[in-house]
Model the fold of this input.
Amino acid sequence: MRKTHLLFVLTLFLLVSCKTETKNPPEATTDSTTSTSVSASTDKLDITITTADGAVLGGFDLSPIKIVANNTNYTFKSKPDKHKFYANGRMKYEVKFKEESLKLRDEDSELLWKVKIYPDKVKISDNEENENAFEVRPYDDKIKIKRDGEELYRVNLEGNIIKVNDKEAYQLSSAQESYVYAILAIEEIPAEHKLFIIAELLNKI
Done:
C-alpha cells in the first residue's frame, strides 16, 4: 500500500513538471526579414547612383529588374501589364503599363506618379489627368525639365556625371546617354520613386 502511494505521488510530480515546461517554452526568435529592412548592397548592380557628396542613392538591374533603394532590396513579379515589387515579403509598389504610359502605385494601389511617353519627351504627374506635369525633354546639348512652361532644371550628362543647373549633382557607376536620368534632378519626386520610374522607362523606351 505504501509503495502504491509513493508511485502515485511520483507520477503526479512528473505530470506537473511536464505541464510547467509546456507553459514556459524557450524564448521565441524574431525573423528580422519581416520586421526590418534587409541590408542591401549596390556593388553588383548594372547601375549605381550616388550624390555629389558620395552618398549612395541606390541602383538597379534591368534584366531582370532588381531595384535597391533606401537600403532595401526590391524584387518583382511580372504580369503582362504590370510589375509588382516586393521588399521583405510584402508588396510595396506596382508599376502598370500601357503602350504610351506607365503608372507607379503604392501598396494600396494609390497612384503616386503617372508617366506619359512621347517620341521626344516624357511627362510626369501625380494625377490621372496628367495635369501640372513635369516635362522632361532632351535637346542637342542639354535636357530641360519644365512645368507649366517654366524651366525648372537644366541637366547635362557628361559621361557618368549628371549636372543640374551647371552643378554636379549625381554620379553614375558607368557612363550613360539616356535622357531619362535627368529625372533625378526633380526634387519634388522622392528619391526612391525616381529609381522605379527611371528603371521602368529604360526598359520601355
